[in-house]
């Protein structure tokens, strides 16, 4: 395998607003459409590295996109070297902070760099990183939001059938405990008693609420409790982890590997699930997975299933991939599912390419 040296030339970015098949109804807001930033990193050698970002807020594209362009401008004519570039980009933006927009822009560019390098070697990213393209165990996270209870049973059956899934994400934290219990019962009727239920509170509880609610649900055989309380209450997460039988999951809001390490040192969770946009792209993930592996903590993914699938193949404590099809409408060739697993295609790079007709249709106005 011969890797061609690549040099930065320019970057093309576009923002699209993709309609969701099942709107997001959660404690963090209502989303009927999903903003996505498409990144095409152009090299002097003609290879284009592709990536996307999902910044939640449509208006945020106005300040994330310029940051990406500024970073590429500083590297123009220089070698594409993601580990070196990651450090340089962090230093370049450190005066405005190492989290938030800074890390999001760095992460998007980093993912595009790794895609370009894998394409230059004519291999899938997983193979470039020393792994292979085996199937990746996944759960379906495409629904089961805080919608009316009477629709959950049918929706659970639909979600299980989408890819023969045996594991689903269910959002909890309704007005009463009884409603949460009813939701659990309905989903099990729809998907089967043996379904694994990854339960997400979307940071909607105070510590006192979480202690009461999670203890009350602790005998339900749920797979995990995800983010019961605000993500930065690390010591309170440590208390929940000590007290609860059900494993505690957190990490989608870790900005960079050091945040993950700090949480693990504090014993703030049983599991972690970094988000590529916040953890620092492929480079941030690789560094974080080494930390999780040293701690023996199972590591799952959050969003970005296409790129994340490659990374799970080289993660020591790989646990679960979160499957969402929210970006499928703008992908030229969406990834396939089989028996609850995501299949990595035999294509160079991450396997991402755009459906240009759909991109034109969903393009956001300036």
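Sequence proposed for the structure above (366 residues):
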């Amino acid at each position: 395998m011969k890797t061609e040296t690549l040099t930065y030339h320019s970057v093309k970015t576009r923002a699209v607003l993709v309609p969701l098949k099942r709107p997001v109804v959660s404690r963090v807001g209502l989303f009927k459409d999903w903003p996505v930033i498409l990144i095409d990193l152009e090299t002097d050698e003609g290879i284009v590295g592709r990536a996307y970002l999902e910044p939640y807020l449509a208006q945020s594209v106005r300040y994330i996109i310029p940051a990406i362009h500024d970073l590429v401008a500083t590297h123009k004519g220089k070698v594409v070297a993601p580990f070196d570039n990651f450090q340089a980009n962090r230093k370049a933006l450190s005066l405005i902070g190492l989290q938030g927009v800074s890390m999001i822009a760095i992460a998007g560019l980093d993912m595009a760099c790794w895609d370009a390098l894998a394409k230059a070697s004519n291999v899938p990213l997983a193979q470039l990183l020393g792994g292979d393209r085996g199937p990746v165990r996944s759960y379906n996270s495409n629904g089961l939001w805080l919608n009316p209870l009477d629709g959950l049973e049918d929706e659970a059956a639909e979600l299980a059938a989408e890819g023969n899934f045996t594991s689903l994400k269910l959002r909890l934290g309704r007005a009463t405990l009884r409603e949460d219990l009813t939701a659990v019962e309905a989903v099990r009727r729809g998907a089967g008693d043996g379904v694994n239920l990854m339960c997400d509170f979307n940071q909607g509880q105070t510590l006192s609420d979480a202690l009461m609610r999670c203890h009350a649900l602790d005998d339900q055989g749920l797979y995990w409790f995800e983010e019961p309380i605000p993500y930065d209450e690390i010591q309170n997460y440590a208390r929940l982890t000590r007290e609860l039988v059900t494993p505690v999951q957190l990490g989608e809001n870790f900005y960079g590997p050091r945040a993950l390490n700090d949480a693990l040192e504090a014993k703030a969770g049983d599991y972690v699930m970094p988000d590529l946009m916040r953890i620092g792209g492929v480079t941030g993930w690789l560094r974080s997975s080494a930390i999780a592996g040293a701690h023996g903590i199972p590591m799952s993914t959050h969003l970005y299933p296409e790129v994340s699938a490659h990374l799970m193949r080289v993660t020591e404590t790989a646990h679960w991939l979160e499957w969402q099809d929210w970006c499928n409408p703008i992908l030229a060739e969406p990834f396939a599912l089989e028996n609850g697993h995501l299949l990595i295609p035999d294509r160079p790079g991450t396997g991402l390419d755009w459906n240009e007709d759909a991109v034109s249709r969903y393009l956001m106005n300036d």
